Amino acid sequence: MSILVIGATGTIGSLITQGLADSGAEVKALVRQLGKRAFPAGVTEVVGDLTDVPSMRAALSSVRTLFLLNAVTPDEVTQAIITLNLAREAGIERIVYLSVIHADKFTNVPHFTGKHTVERMIESLDMSATILRPAYFMQNELMVLQTIQNYSVYPMPIGSTGVAMIDARDIADVAVAELLRRDRASSALDRVTLELVGPQALTGNLVAKTWSSALGREIAYGGDDVAAFEKNLTSYGPTWLAYDMSLMMADIQKFGMLADEGTVARLESIIGHPLRTYENFVREVTATA
After folding, report:
1. Biggest distance spanned by C-alpha atoms of the chain
2. Contact predicate 138/165, CB 8 Å
3. How far apart are CA 216 and CA 214, in angstroms?
4. Residue 236 — pLDDT band, cuts 50, 70, 90?
5. What pLDDT score was predicted for residue 9?
6. What is the CA 133 to chain-centroid distance, rounded?
7. CB atoms within 10 A of CB 269
8. Beta-carbon neighbour count of residue 58 at 10 Å?
9. CB burial of residue 30 (10 Å; 0-12, 13-18, 19+)
10. What interhelical angle do 110-124 and 76-89 show, nearest 10?
11. Which of 47, 98, 127, 199 shows the smallest number of beta carbons within 10 Å?
12. Is the pLDDT of residue 123 over 90?
């Protein structure tokens, strides 16, 4: 029996696949086509499409533990619910699902509410699962690195309420720990929800100062204009996604992305090391850019 990683080709999924392989676990990675990506030694590629039921039935066979990460797409909810129903059908009782922090609070943001819908399914069916709710990924900053370097502006309108950004490597470490905990248990474990945050509440101005320090020159915060942010995003991708992201930024400005007291200590006890800081992430990025 193996651990199946859905989302294995993305940033988080590839880190999880590597971590599981390093632990000696039997790992399968869901792919659309064989041989398109190099996986760690011992990882078996399984072909499947989340909207193709026969292929998913085959992929979920001989699986004991499931990691589910859905890309932000218009049919994200359909993909997740089909997959979880097929997992139940296959008798899989050990699940880790990647949701998002404040999925129940950012109710006007499509991909947040979509993930909350999936959470409600897991809860209503009393599925044995760990629901991971990460805050904003530090690695998202790589998408705006060129803007920061070329125009001396930090363009993400995260506001001043506070965002406890988390390093993708720490998200993967928690996911691996939970997958192994469930996979190695003698029976299905109780459901648990973990909010995943970094060790510091960041604001737009504080982030700009961090980049200024790392680059040795002034980096300005671009401000809180989410309409301008949306307009800029439409130059790079679909309008539905740009609108979704602008709604998320507006809610980040209003609510922030912060966890309850004690969350950082709990996460560090799970992964066995301190959470990575934003300052160290930025210094790593600028040292190799």
Report:
1. 57
2. yes
3. 6
4. confident
5. 87
6. 8
7. 9
8. 13
9. buried
10. 20
11. 47
12. yes
